Amino acid sequence: MEKHLITFMPDNVSVAVREGTNLLAAAKQAGIDMSSPCGGRGTCGKCAVKVISGSYDSREDAHLSEDLKAQGLVLACKIKVRGPMTVEVPTQSRLTEHKVLLGSKRTRFTKENDFFATRKMNPICHRYCLRLDPPDLVDNQSDWDRLQNALRKQHGLKDATIAISCLQALPAAARLGNWDITVTVGTLLGVPKVLTVEPGHTTRPTYGLAVDIGTTTVVVALLDTATGRILDKAGTYNKQSVYGSDVISRIIYTDDHPEGLALLQKAVLDTLNELIDGLLAKNGIDPREIPVLVHGGNTVMTHLFLGIPATWLRLEPYAPAVTAPPVLRAKELELHINPDALVVTIPSVAAYVGGDITAGVLATQITRSEELTLFIDIGTNGELVLGNNDWLVTCACSAGPAFEGSGIACGMRAMEGAIDSLEIDRETLEAHCGTIGKIKPRGICGSGLICALSELKRAGIIDRAGKMLPHQNQRIRLGSEGMEYVLVWADESGSKQDIVITEGDIKNLLRAKGAILAGIRTMLNLVQLEMQDIARVYIAGGFGNYLNISDSVRIGLLPDLPREKFEYVGNSCIQGAMTVLLSQEGLAESLDLANRMTYLELSNGNQFMDEFISALFIPHTDLNLFPSLQTECPGSAQALRGEQEGDAERPTGAGGPPPSSQES
Question: Residue 51: which residues within 8 A CB-CB, separation 6 or more?
């Protein structure tokens, strides 16, 4: 089949693609990462481009806004190449650097004493200096036997095994060092394995990597495992994002394309390897000096990272292929570290409660307290854990895509130009917006959406059901998709378009926040407790870290509790991965935690749906659940009965898989 040259501007990058290739796929081949929350199915309207010249076939682009059509833009995923083309990719259609949460406001891992106070320092990998007994004609046992004897006698390590590459290097290393050698030993669940061998005695640090593989972002921390000191961190967006913003879109992509699984695995491995390469180069560390990597992620991300089909995770009964994957060697995944390095996966609980949640529970030490604790991780997906030292209940809610900007008319991820805070004047109804990077607004991200919903209600622009009320104000108008409020006028925006929030957006946000609160209420009902019984609330995740507590309570996303009960824990997945990296007991504890958590499947029975319908209002139909807001929200559940009719819809996959962006 004939190939055609496609040139992308303003990058001035060209790529030759086969006739019939769509422009979104061509952009991927050219190394241009475009926004594509729906995975290229044409339902999100985010991959808009301008064709400057060339031959192509175009399909219906009903999901592209009228404003963008008027500017001559088309959806890249709907354009098939028929000849040479020149295409302009506007800023708002690109994936740029995300606002990545690298760590935590907690200090547990910034001071050695904080770690030692809670767990024994016993890293997975140790470096040992050994003196082997030289052979002679009387004692001519093998070099490996001598090494095993030295480990047992000098350090108490029994039944050690060895990587074949180390065994190949052992004879020369032992003799070159005059029978003094240094070995790195990785110990998992009490079984030691020799991972590196070198001649002589060395006092160089032993390093390790802790990794959070998120749907949206990937974060890597480099540690000196002998001291527990964090040497450096790095993070960026997950390159899988070009195949869909949420896990369901990515699973569908792997199902619809024969090479899909391989492409998704390569994308996340490329992301991780680029971060590793940068960290090691910056700190002057040879990749062979990294003998262990511990990673956590949601169950779908773990499957895709390991190249395991995830098809059945989105189909009833949502059974994962594995929850506790075996330990792998880095060379099996082509990671840019020591080929024999241990790759340890923090175990998942169920299809939609992954190793990132296990890691978060491990890091926050919920099971070391009698207090009732609620752990909330709101990211691309929403996962909840409730419990204490006696019991743990967990569930997953279909909430994430809206909070990540998917399914929102002007929604975007937390990148430069995203509105992340705003205030609406109560008298003039003018909006004053703050953005990431303090540049002109290009759209609105999750934290901005929460703030917007709260401000719209407080300013009297919307009612408790999210409907816009009549106002004689130019910011409130009838748009192409119904009533909308203009946050930023086109001449003040970085996209040169009006940035709006529509009634449809508000409906999606109410579903998302309603699912989270309904999940919390359903878990509490299961154990016959009330929201006021919660002693602590840990808020984790990149999106959660930027939540405004007051706004979140005001819209009914979070329970109405005293503010001192809430604590941001930041990237709890990376903290949990560091815990496992620095403590052999941490791995055993993570396995125990995953087994102890009782998974609540919200799609079974009607209780979640009853709670969900009640939570589709601001803040809730039952104002007694939000006593601090009763003066702001006059009325009662009875007064809302008329508004409820026809408004309450079951979210796609409630309690099962999260909805993909086009279903939000």
Answer: 74, 79, 85, 86, 87
Tokens of 278: 């940068």
Write the DSSP string, 363-402.
HHTGGG-SS-EEEEEESSSEEEEEE-SS-EEEEEES-HHH
- What angle separates helix 143-155 from helix 164-176, to the nearest 10 degrees? 80
- Give Dmax (Cα) for the chain: 102
Q: How confident is the model at residue 58 (pLDDT cuts 50, 70, 90)?
A: confident
Q: Can you give the pLDDT at residue 246?
A: 86
Q: Which amino acid, 613?
A: I
Q: What is the mean pLDDT of the chain?
A: 89
User: Is the overall model pTM greater than 0.90, yes or no?
Assistant: no
The 10 Å Cβ neighbour count of residue 564 is 7
Question: Alpha-carbon distance 301 to 354, whole Å?
Answer: 9
517 residue type, one letter = L
> What CATH number was assigned to the domain covering residues 357-401+509-663?
3.30.420.40
Q: Strand runs (DSSP E) across 475-555, as ranges?
A: 476-479, 482-488, 499-502, 536-540
Q: Is 342 helix (H, G, I), strand (E, B) or coil?
A: strand
Distance CA 443, CA 379 (A): 18
Q: Which of the listed CATH numbers 3.30.1360.70, 3.10.20.880, 3.40.50.300, 3.40.50.12780 matches domain 124-199?
A: 3.10.20.880
Cα–Cα distance, 448 to 277 (Å, whole number): 34
The DSSP line for 44-112 is S---EEEEEEEEEEE---TTS-HHHHHTT-EEGGGEEEEEEEEEE--GGGB---B----S-S--TTTSH
Q: Phi and psi at residue 89, in whole multiples of 5°? A: -105, 110
Tokens found for residue 650: 């079951």
